[in-house]
Design a protein that fits this description.
Elements (H helix, E strand, L loop, with lengths): L9 E6 L3 H6 L7 E5 L9 H17 L3 E5 L4 H11 L6 E4 L5 H17 L8 E6 L8 H5 L5 E6 L1 H8 L5 H18 L2 E3 L11 H14 L4 E3 L2 H10 L4 H19 L5 E3 L2 E3 L1 H27 L2
Parallel strand pairs: 1-2, 1-8, 2-3, 3-4, 4-5, 5-6, 6-7
Antiparallel strand pairs: 9-10
Helix pairs in contact: 2-3, 3-4, 8-9, 10-11
Length: 302
C-alpha cells in the first residue's frame, strides 16, 4: 500500500449546520472530521451548512484533524457543495452513492476547475468513494482507480443493506467489505469501513470486537457517528505494542538474511519473505505516523 496515504483510523461525522458539534470537534481526537452536508443535514438547512464549511474547516484543521467534507449526491447540489467547500483546509471530499468510475471522474473534473480558479495545487483535494448499493460492486476496481485523487473507498453499511433487503450484520456485510479491501489494495488506496452498523455504539466491547475483526480483514479505518467510537477505532485500527515489537524484530532478522545473500529467513518458527516484510514495514510506518500526529496534537494545545 502507498505509505503516503493519510492516517484515517477514525473519521467522525459532524453536521456542518450544528455549531455546538463543530465547536467540540477538535476535542474528539479523531484522525479526521467529516463535515457533513448530506444525510445529517435537512434539506432546508443545506444552504446554511454549505456556508458554514469554510470557517469550520479552518477551526478543525488548526487543531490537527484532517478535514473531509461529504457532499450531496444529486448533481446540482453536488456542484454547489463543491463550489462552496473546495479550499486550502479541506483535504478530501467524500462522494456518496457512487455507482461507477464516471461518477468519480466528473467530481474530480469539477474539483480541478475549482483548484485552478482558487490557485490551489492541482491534486490538493483528495477523494473518498462511498459505496451504498449492490449495483456498484461490479465496478469497484474501476472506481478505486478512477482518479489520481482517489484516497480511499468505503462501504456505507446502512444504505447498502437497505438496497439489498438484508440486516447490517457480520455475515451479510463480510463479502462486500472484502470486495472493498481487494479493490482498494489493488489500486493502492485505503480500504475503509468495518463489518457492522455505523449506528452501533452503545455496547463498546461489541464494537471493539467488530473493529478488531474488520482490521484482520485488511480494513484500515472507518467512519463513525459518535465520539465513543473514536477511541476504540484509534486503538484497534492502529498496531499494538506487541505487533510493533514483532514487526521490528522481523525486519531485523530479514535484513540480516539479505546481507547474507538470502531472500527469506526463519522468524519465530515461520518462513518470512518480502510480502511478509512489506506488512511489517506497513505496521512500523503506521506507528511512526501515529506518534507524529500525537506529538502535533500535544504541541497544538500548549
Amino acid at each position: 500500500m502507498n505509505t503516503q496515504l493519510p492516517l484515517w483510523r477514525s473519521s467522525l461525522f459532524v453536521p456542518a449546520n450544528v455549531e455546538r458539534f463543530i465547536a467540540k470537534a477538535h476535542l474528539r481526537q479523531a484522525d479526521a472530521i467529516i463535515l457533513d452536508l448530506e444525510d445529517s443535514v435537512p434539506l432546508s438547512q443545506k444552504s446554511n451548512a454549505r456556508d458554514n464549511v469554510g470557517a469550520a474547516a479552518v477551526r478543525v484543521a488548526s487543531n490537527g484533524a484532517d478535514v473531509i467534507v461529504r457532499i450531496n449526491q444529486p448533481w446540482r447540489l453536488a456542484v454547489r457543495d463543491l463550489e462552496a467547500v473546495i479550499g486550502e483546509h479541506v483535504k478530501a471530499i467524500c462522494v456518496p452513492k457512487v455507482s461507477c468510475a464516471a461518477h468519480m471522474q466528473f467530481i474530480a473534473e469539477v474539483i480541478t476547475e475549482l483548484e485552478v480558479e482558487r490557485k490551489l495545487p492541482i491534486g490538493h483535494t483528495k477523494l473518498i468513494a462511498l459505496i451504498e448499493s449492490a449495483a456498484a460492486l461490479k465496478h469497484l476496481d474501476a472506481i478505486a482507480s478512477s482518479s489520481l485523487r482517489m484516497q480511499g473507498m468505503i462501504l456505507g453499511p446502512e444504505d447498502f443493506t437497505a438496497s439489498v433487503g438484508m440486516e447490517t450484520d457480520r455475515e451479510g456485510l463480510l463479502f462486500p467489505n472484502q470486495q472493498i479491501v481487494f479493490a482498494a489494495r489493488q489500486a493502492g488506496i485505503l480500504p475503509l469501513g468495518f463489518v457492522g452498523s455505523i449506528g452501533d455504539f452503545r455496547d463498546p466491547e461489541a464494537f471493539r470486537e467488530m473493529i478488531k475483526f474488520s482490521r484482520r480483514l485488511g480494513l484500515r479505518g472507518g467512519f463513525c457517528i459518535h465520539p465513543d467510537q473514536v477511541t476504540i477505532m484509534n486503538e484497534e485500527f492502529g498496531p499494538s505494542t506487541e505487533e510493533l515489537d514483532n514487526a521490528r524484530d522481523l525486519l531485523k532478522v530479514f535484513e540480516i538474511s539479505l546481507r547474507e545473500g538470502r531472500g527469506s529467513a526463519e522468524f519465530k518458527g515461520k518462513m518470512i519473505d518480502e510480502p511478509v516484510v512489506a506488512r511489517a514495514r506497513e505496521i512500523i510506518a503506521m506507528a511512526e505516523e501515529i506518534v507524529a500526529k500525537e506529538k502535533f496534537l500535544v504541541s497544538s494545545f500548549k
